[in-house]
């Protein structure tokens, strides 16, 4: 996950150098980041079916003004 994020950030920086205005960076779903979301859970990787935690349902996004 971290390797993918680092790769994407490199491209986002390159894109931001060529645009002006508001840019929204988003994803298709949240992520468990390999950590258990509840004390008795196994670590959550990706987006497993049948889970309703906020961290997995809310779509992450970042707004940048360039």
How would you sum up this structure, described in words?
There is one protein chain. With 66 residues, this protein is of the alpha+beta class. The protein is 29% helix and 15% strand. It contains two helices and two strands, in the order H-E-H-E. The protein has a two-stranded antiparallel ribbon. The longest helix is centred in the N-terminal third of the chain and has 15 residues, at 2-16. The radius of gyration is 15 Å and the shape is elongated.
Mind telling me the C-alpha Rg?
A: 15 Å
Poorly predicted runs of 5 or more residues = none
The main pleated sheet reads as: 2 strands, antiparallel
Overall 3D form: elongated
The main sheet orders its strands as 1-2
Element-by-element helix/strand order:
HEHE
* Mean pLDDT level: 85
Structural class call reads: alpha+beta
Helix content: 25-40%
Quaternary state, please?
single chain
Strand content: 15-25%
Number of strands: 2
User: How many helix segments?
Assistant: 2
What is the element layout, followed by pairings?
Blueprint (H helix, E strand, L loop, with lengths): L1 H15 L5 E5 L27 H4 L3 E5 L1
Antiparallel strand pairs: 1-2
Relevant terms:
single chain; elongated; two-stranded antiparallel sheet; 66 residues; alpha+beta
Give a nutshell description of this structure:
The protein is built from 2 helices and 2 strands; from the N terminus they run αβαβ. It is of the alpha+beta class.
């Amino acid at each position: 996950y971290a390797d993918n994020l680092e790769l994407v950030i490199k491209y986002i920086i390159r894109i931001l150098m060529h645009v002006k205005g508001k840019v929204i960076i988003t994803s298709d779903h949240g992520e468990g980041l390999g950590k258990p979301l509840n004390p008795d859970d196994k670590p959550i990787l990706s987006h497993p079916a049948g889970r309703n935690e906020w961290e997995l349902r809310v779509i992450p996004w970042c707004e940048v003004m360039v």
